[in-house]
Specification:
Elements: H1 7-30, H2 38-62, H3 70-99, H4 104-107, H5 111-162, H6 170-185, H7 189-210, E1 214-216, H8 217-234, E2 240-245, E3 255-257, H9 262-271, E4 281-289, E5 292-299, H10 304-313, H11 321-337, E6 342-347, E7 358-365
Parallel strand pairs: 2-4
Antiparallel strand pairs: 1-3, 4-5, 5-7, 6-7
């Protein structure tokens, strides 16, 4: 399949070609006399303009000027147009002098006079180039924001229709939607799109798994990875994670209850890691001893005791809805499937660890369904 030429290069080539043709048209139709080296001067000026505007585009993109608020962009458009018009004028003057294609009148001028005359003549072209380029990016960014808003509204409706609030922590949904909204308002379109895609993927997995009481271990790990990658993006890669499985868990037929691990991981991130300075990590280990399946989530956060102190200092009555729902599900699973499911959450410092953090361990007997 043939590769398409990017629109930018088509516009650059087309625009500067049109510049040459327009000047030729006026020269042929309106000239009062023959100007020596006119065509050489015109082509050299167009080539210099092509290169200078491309360098200007690189500066604009590297400085992320197109991502700034519109009122700031106006100032930058004027400033960068003046700077690069002067660069264009000095470069063109040097090129024409080096090629020996200056008119007799130009040769009599000082170099500074030449630069000023050329710059005044081409400032309009440079500023129009910038206006078109910034306007294009504004339209693209606005359209992307509208698409993200539509996708966000669609997701919200999907959540309402599927009553997903009974299956996962509603605080997670609230925080995730606010995270997307914040990125869009800050015009961080790239990360907002990535975050929205990961959030949509997780919601689809949640909808799929919430229809089942049990899923395979592989599906559960895929769900956790989707959640963890989304949280890493939200928190600017401020933490790391690992997921390990024992060799005994190679059987793809092993199934575990749905949506029981994610609330523990979420709790580790939000109440443990996010209050810690320095390196942050959460480790998830799946193991099997006989018929007893174990999932251990260990973080190096501030620990339960310190988290409770912070809660008291902030005088908040917030309860972990995710953990409350999980404990209710454990009670129901034990009554229905006799799984001997149990959850223990301990502060790592209580076990003689020098490091701070929390460990949550979920155990239950595997059951044949």
């Amino acid at each position: 399949m043939k590769k398409r030429i990017p629109y930018y290069w088509l516009c650059q080539i087309g625009g500067w070609s049109a510049f040459i043709l327009v000047y030729i048209f006026f020269y042929v139709t309106l000239r009062t006399g023959i100007q020596p080296s006119f065509y050489k001067m015109l082509v050299s000026e167009a080539l210099v303009g092509f290169v200078i505007t491309h360098v200007m585009r690189v500066v604009i993109l590297e400085s992320r000027l197109v991502d700034r608020p519109v009122n700031e962009q106006v100032m930058y458009i004027i400033l960068i147009s003046i700077v690069f018009t002067l660069i264009y004028g000095s470069t063109t003057a040097q090129v024409e002098e080096w090629m020996g294609i200056e008119s007799e009148k130009q040769r009599q001028l000082s170099f500074l006079n030449k630069v000023i005359r050329i710059s005044l003549g081409y400032f309009f072209i440079i500023i129009v180039w910038n206006l078109i380029y910034f306007a294009y990016h504004y339209v693209v960014r606005t359209r992307q924001a509208q698409l993200d808003k539509i996708r966000l509204e669609s997701l919200v409706k999907e959540l309402e229709l599927k009553t997903i609030k009974s299956h996962i922590n509603p605080h997670f949904i609230f925080n995730a939607l606010n995270g997307i909204k914040r990125m869009i308002l800050e015009q961080d379109i790239s990360n907002a799109s990535r975050y929205l895609s990961k959030f949509a993927q997780m919601i689809r997995l949640t909808l799929s798994q919430s229809k089942q009481s049990f899923v395979t271990l592989k599906e559960n790990i895929e769900y956790l990875e989707s959640y963890l990658e989304m949280e890493k993006l939200r928190f600017d890669d401020s933490f790391t994670y690992t997921i390990q499985t024992d060799d005994e868990l190679t059987d793809e037929g092993i199934t575990i209850p749905t949506l029981m691990i994610q609330p523990l991981v979420e709790n580790a991130i939000w109440h443990g890691l996010m209050h810690r300075e320095g390196e942050k990590a959460v480790d998830i280990v799946f193991s099997l001893q006989g018929e007893v399946f174990t999932c251990a989530i260990t973080d190096n956060g501030i620990g339960i005791r310190q988290a409770e102190k912070l809660k008291q200092q902030r005088k908040t009555a917030h309860r972990s809805v995710g953990l409350d729902n999980l404990r209710n599900r454990i009670s129901i699973m034990n009554e229905k499937y006799h799984m001997d499911c149990a959850l223990t959450i301990t502060d790592r410092s209580d076990n003689g660890h020098h490091n701070t953090g929390t460990q949550a361990v979920l155990r239950f007997k595997l059951t044949d369904l």
